[in-house]
Amino acid sequence: MATVIDGRMVAGEVLDGVAAEISKTGLKPRLAIVMVGNDPGSQIYVRLKEKACARVGIVSTNYFLPENTKQEELLKLVKKLNKGPDNGILVQIPLPKHIDPEVILEAVDPEKDIDGLTEQNLGRLFFGTNPYPPCTPGGVLKLLDRYGVNIEGKDVVMVGRSKIVGKPIAMMLTNKNATVTLCHSKTRNLAGHARRAEILVVAVGRPKMFTADMVREGAVVIDVGINRLDGKVVGDVDFESVKGKASFITPVPGGVGPMTIAMLMKNTLRACQRQAKTKG
Ligand code: NDP
Hints:
With 280 residues, the protein is α/β, with parallel strands linked by helices. The protein has helices spanning 7-25, 40-56, 71-83, 101-107, 119-127, 135-146, 166-175, 190-196, 239-242, 257-279, and strands at 3-4, 30-36, 59-65, 88-91, 155-159, 179-183, 199-202, 220-223, 227-229, 232-234, 248-249.
């Protein structure tokens, strides 16, 4: 039976570490949270981020803009924040359809890009020098590290190749000397690839898609997926069947999810530390 990886506990440890560092150094990190429109999911995430900021001692400022905000206006705000006192800038996605998220995210100063998703920071990720690892991928690596999962030389299969999750995880694990296969919707024989994996990471967005017959005996299974099924939140992995076969497994909820916000807090602190150095 697999050890269930407790993301809430590890996220709590990360947050405690950030809070301790802030009180020890006397730094006052600041995070600007920008949200356009009233997407209900985004509202929940923004509230959770505010709560995490308050818990660790980061000053958060919200910029809530109406749904009909023009791209130019949003761009102007981001440019203003780039020059302002906030150490980190977070633009909540999704944006309304008339705004191109790539244009907005790219306008964030890479030094304040605590999501780590500007082209410059993704380029640095390639070399392992991104000061702000993207938050969900950073959270996945932290969980593996915290549970003592050795990555070097391991056969990893990453399913999903999005810019925010799959590709960065594949790159970060490659930098840690894993042998990574990156699968996606055009992959032939996905089950065959998945069954080979010593570490299987899935970020697809399909409820309970990965069943026990697709998992190798003793594999480490990390489920990034968040789906709604019959009124419940479930992952991409069929947790009940797979936990009997895996050595470690993340639950949904309570696995990778809580790590994303914790890593965001860590990146905001890092931004403050880096900016304090260049100022000092
Ligand atoms: P995207 O929709 O951007 O990417 C999904 C990926 O899955 C794509 O690469 C796609 O392939 C691949 N895919 C789709 N169908 C199949 C299939 N049948 N077989 C193999 N691969 C397939 O999603 P995200 O990466 O943004 O998110 C993935 C999941 O993770 C979602 O459930 C999301 O809610 C969750 N998530 C969770 C977070 C957390 O904090 N825990 C944070 C971010 C996301 P292709 O590229 O070919 O289209």
